[in-house]
Structure formats: structure tokens, C-alpha cells
Amino acid sequence: MMVDQTACSHIRSSQAVVLIVAEVLKQLQFTSTFAYLAYVVLRGSNSWNPSNWVVIDVFDMHDAFWKSSN
Length: 70
Fold this sequence. Notes:
It is built from three helices and no strands. By secondary structure, it is an all-alpha fold. It has one domain (3-69). The radius of gyration is 13 Å and the shape is flat.
């Protein structure tokens, strides 16, 4: 894997996380939000894949938290 591809992957992941933070804060409880964001950040920091996995995982996690809190 080339270094520039890794950098692009990290940047894309970071941008996706930033875009979803506002929605996360609106819909999840305070303690759940921290666990949720920690999961996303950890997945992002360990990912070498420049695909849009962040968005997919974020919505899956949102559903899990939303169902467990209701």
C-alpha cells in the first residue's frame, strides 16, 4: 500500500466522522455518544481501505444504539 493512499483514506474517514457528529449528538444520549465516536475513531485509525466503510458502520452503530436505548 502506498503512503499517499493511506493518507487519503485517513482524510476521507475523518471527513465522514466530522459530517456525522452533529447528527450523532442530536439523536444519541450523552454517554452513548462517547462510546459511539470512540468506536468510529478507532475503526478509522486502523483502516487501510479508502472506501466509505465509515458511513456504513456509523449507520449500523446508530441503529444498534437507538434500539438499545428505546
